Protein 1
Amino acid sequence: MKYVGLQQQITSNNRKSVLLLLLFPILVLVMVYAFSFIIHFSSDYPYSLDIVNQDFISTIPFVLIGVGIWFVIAYFSNSAIINRAAQSHTLSRKENMRVYNLTENLCMSIGMKMPKLRIIESDALNAFASGINQKTFTITLTRGIINTLDDDELEGVIAHELTHIRNSDVKLLIVSVIFVGIFSFVMQIASRSLFYGNAFGRNRKKDKDGGIALIIIMLLAAIAYFLSLIFKMALSRKREYMADAGAVELTRRPLALANALQKISGNSHIEKVKSKDMQEMYIDYTPPKKRSFSFSSLFATHPPIEKRIQYLQQLYEGM
């Protein structure tokens, strides 16, 4: 894979962000319309597409307002949520001058404002970038990766995370995670209501009718969730290759990052961090139990680390 250039990648990711912002609400509206269509079609009342369209149009403002409120709250509170999920704390300059110097030197070389630095107290070897603007951009490292890698290798990892920030990858990921979470939430509410609550709807004759409505909601939300995952995964793997290439552009040492990935491989699992959304942000995420093949491998958030190392070696040979 050839690195297409930083500015071109930033422009591409900004376009994808806009596309995601459009696709996910559209998917929400399609799900709402499908629900209205199926409910009217299966009712005992005379079927009319005009009634379906009128009901759908009347619900659009409520759906968009609800999605908008969810998005705004999640978008602007994401940093606090991520830090809490990662169980990280601030890495002070006094505590680790080495990490600060490496990060500061890289930022100065490209005229970039230095992000915040945080640390996870874990022997695992991993790192990730997060944030939506200059005030919240953060690079989080594990204690293990700081203590294990030498300066050149750690610089390569930090450069990789800085590239995620520069490429707007972190904002792109947050947008996709928020909307995937909406469909997941709808599925959970529908399933819990089906088992623990009474069904809803003014025109229902029996609880059975409401149960059918909830099953339809669950199925539609599951389909939307599946499609939203495809949207998200379509962006995820390429993002890591681009960040690796961007790190090489910053450090001019592809083998240093390759060596870092070699050390990270098999040692990246952070036991105490369970969030799947967090795992997608890591420089590497490999499930602790590997299988030769599984359905989940089709939705892998990262390309195989061996291929990334091979790609970096090819970059070195081409320099």
Note: Residues 197-206, 291-296 have pLDDT under 50 and may be disordered.
Protein 2
Amino acid sequence: MSAAPASSVVLGAGLMGRLLAWQLAVAGHRVTVHEAGDAQALGSPARIAAAMLAPLAESAITEPSVVRMGHYALQRWPELLSKLSQPVFFQQSGTLVLWHRQDAAEALRFAGLLQNTQAALPELPPMRRVDGKTIRELEPALENRFSQGLYLPGEGQLDNRQLLQSLLNEMQTLGVQLCWNSARAPEDFAPGHEGQPDWLFDCRGLGAQAQWTQLRGVRGEVARIHAPDVQLSRPTRLIHPRYPIYIAPKQDQVFVIGATEIESEDLSPPSVRSTLELLSAAYAVHPGFAEARILEVATQCRPTLPDNLPAIRRLGPRALQINGLYRHGFMISPALLDVVLGLVQRADSSLAVQLSLHIED
């Protein structure tokens, strides 16, 4: 007589919770998800993100371990997305980094940080310094606005909201039990005991602060705009000493523009000042943004640990907490997913060692 399938409870239905619940169900687990909010993930930072997959660009503000996870995930995302029944926009056309002449010193500092990363991690595709002619070839709409830049090949992006919806569809199709408006905590369960799940996974982000007191929120502000007059084909970053920005072009002439990062758990609407700076910087990249229509200006807080690095923590032999993805959720979540699946299915932590991902006991 065959053994009953393993049962798992996942707390939190943001990006990490949905990915994990989906893959556990694919592996044959009976999965239940408890989420404090609703199916739209309105309280999740994953809904507000630009979902850029840019490990080399992000290396200017993060550690080599996160860059390794991002590089791993760039190879993993196409495999995961190919298994979804609802398509998700995915692009891997590289990142273009630009600056105005007066910001050349800041650009030199940024390029030096990326060079250090390349020396430490030679497996990354090498960045290229580009002149005005090459910039025009990469992005004809920029015409003669920039004379210098960096091109980071291989980097990518996806559509975060399409992905969240597609993962929801997969969970429903696979029979995952979805409990919305159901705030639960790890102490509500005793994994491995009679009448309890075999496994428990806490993916609640800032919702886990009561159990993981080192967590803090880092506020980010993002504008989504519709700009029919702007033609950009890849994520573009503008270097500026006070308000660097990124512009991520999605489908149907929708652009996600972001920059601000504030050490605060304040979830009030964005300020006039930060919104003006965000949109003014975008206009400095392309004047066509002046006639764009603002679809949304939103804010959310990303769950962050003191070292700004992700971590997995064992709450017991069959209970794991996954948290601290900070601003890199989409960039590194496939790496965290595969580490957790290795721990569950084979008691194998070799991928965590390979990626220098910390597992706390």
Note: Residues 95-153+216-304 form a domain with the D-Amino Acid Oxidase; Chain A, domain 2 fold (CATH 3.30.9.10).
